Amino acid sequence: MKQFIDAFKISNGRKFSLKDFDTAFTAEYKKDEAGKILEELIRKTATIQEELYADRQYSLLIIFQAMDAAGKDGAIEHTMSGLNPQGCQVFNFKQPSSEEYAHDFLWRHYKALPERGHIGIHNRSHYENVLVTKVHPELILNENIPGIHSLKKLTNDFWDERYNSIRAFEKHLHHNGTVIVKFFLNLSKDEQKERFIKRIDDPEKNWKFSADDLKEREFWNDYMQAYEKAIKETATPENPWYIIPADKKWFTRIAISEIILHTIEGLKLKYPVLPKAEKAKLEEIKAGLEKE
Hints:
The protein is an alpha/beta fold.
């Protein structure tokens, strides 16, 4: 486990290229064993989730970013299925509303942060503001940022400042008890094509396909550059990225579950210990109940 976690992990200082990552990698795992392995990982995570909830010092923010058809929805469904829903929230971020455009680009994401003891899952996230906007910079003009009235104003300095805002945002969260796990589901262009075709062929999956998905596919290389740049600029020791092979969904889900479990275990959580006075009071209450 530790070996492939380290292989997928990008933190400050590590040079990499997305082209060097095998999108079909499956480590030593086999597909016919995947179900049982995932089930056990979910069981362990559900147990330790209770400790996270009881401890109430930390929250866990899990970020999913990927190209269309990479399997974000399925990964969330399968890896989080055994968790207590009372301590888990999922937010899907689409194109900003007029109200959201009236605030800074982090506003709507800050509102969706998990409280201490809880797990928050963001299906797409604040990173869309350096991904889709990098590929389609005209979207930035919707934000009405002072001094940014034309595409010519979107200089390298502008993007550097945006990356800096994200780093500062995540650093602040880290120092206040929010543990951030950032996943990029690394899908190959060929596999995306196959999944698009399956969505078209299967009437029950037609709703998942949009002509816009095909249009965005034309910008594949631009998106890969944007993802690579965003990961390099915002990966830190405290808030690393994980580049997860996404061509084999069964392995993707195992890898995600392994990393989430490993991350929570690293917090060394413990159930709260009551002061002696409160323990004594509980014993008195117990004794009273037993006399009834």
